[in-house]
Amino acid sequence: MASTETKDQSTTGRPGDRASAGGDSSNDLAGLEAGLDALESKVVDRQPWLRTLASKALPPVIAIAIVLGLWQLAYHFELKEHYLLPSPIEVGRSLQDKWLEGTLLSYVWTSISRGALGFLASVVIGTVLGLIVARVKVVRAAIGPILSGLQSLPSVAWVPAAIIWFGLSDATIYAVVLLGAVPSIANGLVAGVDQISPLYLRAGRTIGATGLAGVRHVLLPASLPGYIAGLKQGWAFSWRSLMAAELIVNAPELGTGLGQLLEQGREFQDMSWVLSAILLILIVGIGIELLIFAPIERRVLRSRGLLVKS
Q: How many Å apart are CA 68 and CA 285, to the nearest integer?
């Protein structure tokens, strides 16, 4: 009898023991997951804004100072004759002269307005084209390789054809910008759509997000990282295409942009003029990238956990 009671007590105690063991194991698992999350996450201490500004601004300033120093050394030791390689000070004086003439901002604004308008049109066309190529297999098989080929084609190659089609007009400039930017934007969107998990697409169809609603609420939001990369590349191509078109398409009624300013400097054989125009083109391109596209890209990546503040 005693042995039977002992067996009964042992058997009746096992479910409780198993429940307790199960609870302990689940608690241990939760603790392990929390520990792993703590290892992956970084504790960010809020730094003073002066230190943050210095950490971000100081490296580019040092790089610019090094470039200017090497440039001045090349001028000093006459690697090229001074009329072929002016000093940084002479280029700065050329920019100052244009500023005092009151024409510098008009040159910059002419190119920026052309680039912005051409880029916005490219975004509309490239987005529609990219969605069609990404979702329709027959269209992708037909024009997908053509888009990739157009993206690798130098934009300046379109200038002679555009001049024949549209003459020396703004239409020629915008045609070259569109042909340079649209393939990059479309290919970026196609790459972003290809990276979407099929689970998201099935979930969208389940809740009724089909057609334009599916594009708005599922495809575009889920493909944003690739799409933003395509937009950045599209802007770079549109800016390069614009400069190529402005270099060649030169007429008084078109106004003067940075590319036309660069061509005028070449005609006058003024290297300070030429280098100052190149510097302005570089500053505008980098400024648009840093002020517009870089913050948008960081925000999108951070919202998806792909970028951690350090």
A: 19
Entry pTM? 0.74
The token pair that represents 28 in the structure block: 């241990």
The token duo for 88 is 């940084």
Q: Which of 89, 193, 70 is nearest to 139 (CA)?
A: 193
Distance of CA 153 to the CA centre of its chain: 20
pLDDT tens-digit readout, 158-215: 888 888 988 888 889 999 999 989 999 999 888 888 887 777 677 777 776 666 776 7
Half-sphere exposure (Cβ direction) of 7: Cα atoms closer than 13 Å:
4
